[in-house]
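Inputs:
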Amino acid sequence: DTAVSQTPKYLVTQMGNDKSIKCEQNLGHDTMYWYKQDSKKFLKIMFSYNNKELIINETVPNRFSPKSPDKAHLNLHINSLELGDSAVYFCASSLNFRDTYDNEQFFGPGTRLTVL
Amino acid sequence: DQQVKQNSPSLSVQEGRISILNCDYTNSMFDYFLWYKKYPAEGPTFLISISSIKDKNEDGRFTVFLNKSAKHLSLHIVPSQPGDSAVYFCAASHISGNTGKLIFGQGTTLQVKP
């Protein structure tokens, strides 16, 4: 039974399209995150939510909008896709970001987005 | 400005020997450090962590060492096994910043040869 799941695993689309990536966790965690792994392999935080409240909002284009309908789900919607958006996007969750030293993050398998 | 750096993109060791993966950071506010392991087509999985009040933490075959003055940490794997072949990411956090934000290095690919 997968702890953090993402759909789809692969996403190939044309420039200018709008797409969404879904993330769900069944761990009962309060905090969820979105990371982007670019071509240089750096994993960079984009957003985090805690019980549907936005906590981290890094400098990402406004075309990226996270949506958290409940604490078990954090979806990522991307408008007007550009070539530079091609990357692997990882969702993660943790007990609660306030739990300092026990705030291990559990990652999903990633979604490889290719923009043509 | 990359605050966490793993300067060795790859490392190859023989099975049974020690693997040493290195990580440097620039932000002196970082006070909690983690290592994650990643297999192809999977997400990273937590391996071991250390807070800045310690200089060593051990868990089975894995030991993390922290040198705060040098802003350097290392992960030792002894003995190395073929199943340890993966990408290892170092990450750092500023606990009192109270956001749970992790800053990752770019990873080191470890190959353990049988």
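The mean pLDDT of chain A is 91. Flag for discussion at group meeting.
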